[in-house]
């Protein structure tokens, strides 16, 4: 078997890039394979495939963060340590949170000649897109800076079914997967096709045109729709029902 040689390429960092990192310091990086790594403790022979997820750390001398433009600062909700049934989850099985509390907002943005303020108030509990924003550690608490457009909706209760979608998003209760084929054959859980049909239970206020004017969405609550199979963010309600939040552009048709 041929040996694999690992080499490191030189990295060039511009002065502008260094200036943008002022106030940040390196934090420990955690890998699922090794735990916490410290300088000098990793040997070449220990390398295996892994994913790095490190947050920038704001130095303690800074006491506040003010988002700019249409960005918001969110205090990330802690990962669930137990299932709904009370089963304790190991850290590797805990789902990455997609929610948190808005703790600061920017001044908004200008579209055309219209000043558009951020509509999400501080203190609101929100759900955001899975891979949105930049994660930071501030006062030993994980936060996320993201654009308002990356916020899926406002959560007014503990149950996801009460999500209030924002902007051009719609919130859909997913139809149950077919139990049988057209010929009457019973389908197993592994052979059931993921549904792409559901009922709209809430719609956002609309999208903004080039002049910053609000345009209502062309879909109303109660509509049964066909949507793109791999679009949006999936959620499971406390009642066991499946829900999905997606942009109206991912809705392909209204069924009747």
UniProtKB/TrEMBL annotation:
InterPro entries, per database record: Chaperonin_GroES, Chaperonin_GroES_sf, Chaprnonin_Cpn10_CS, Cpn20, GroES-like_sf
GO cellular component terms given for this protein: chloroplast; mitochondrion
Domain of life assignment: Eukaryota
Keyword Amino-acid biosynthesis: no
One Pfam match: Cpn10
Any one GO MF annotation of this record: protein folding chaperone
Alphabetical UniProt keywords: Chaperone
Alphabetical list of SUPFAM superfamilies matching this protein: GroES-like
Signal peptide span: none
NCBIfam families attached to this UniProt entry: PRK00364.2-2 (NF001531)
Family per record: Belongs to the GroES chaperonin family.
Name of protein: 20 kDa chaperonin, chloroplastic
Organism: Arabis nemorensis
């Amino acid at each position: 078997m041929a040996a694999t040689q690992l080499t490191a390429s030189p990295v060039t960092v511009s002065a502008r890039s260094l200036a943008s990192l002022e106030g940040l310091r390196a934090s420990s990086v955690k890998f699922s394979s090794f735990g916490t790594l410290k300088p000098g403790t990793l040997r070449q022979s220990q390398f295996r495939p892994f994913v790095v997820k490190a947050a920038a750390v704001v130095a303690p001398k800074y006491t506040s963060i003010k988002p700019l433009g249409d960005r918001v600062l969110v205090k990330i909700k802690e990962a669930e340590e137990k299932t709904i049934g009370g089963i304790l989850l190991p850290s590797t099985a805990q789902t990455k949170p997609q929610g948190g509390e808005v703790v600061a907002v920017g001044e908004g943005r200008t579209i055309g000649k219209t000043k558009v303020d951020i509509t999400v108030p501080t203190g609101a509990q929100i759900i955001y897109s899975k891979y949105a924003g930049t994660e930071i550690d501030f006062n030993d608490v994980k936060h996320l800076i993201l654009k308002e457009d990356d916020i899926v909706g406002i959560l007014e209760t503990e149950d996801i079914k009460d999500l209030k979608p924002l902007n051009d998003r719609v919130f859909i209760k997913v139809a149950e997967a077919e139990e049988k084929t057209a010929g009457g054959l019973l389908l197993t859980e592994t052979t059931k096709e993921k549904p792409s049909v559901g009922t709209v239970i809430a719609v956002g206020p609309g999208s903004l045109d080039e002049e910053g004017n609000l345009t209502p969405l062309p879909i109303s609550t109660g509509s049964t729709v066909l949507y793109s199979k791999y679009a949006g963010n999936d959620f499971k309600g406390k009642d066991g029902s499946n829900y999905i939040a997606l942009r109206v552009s991912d809705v392909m048709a209204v069924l009747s």
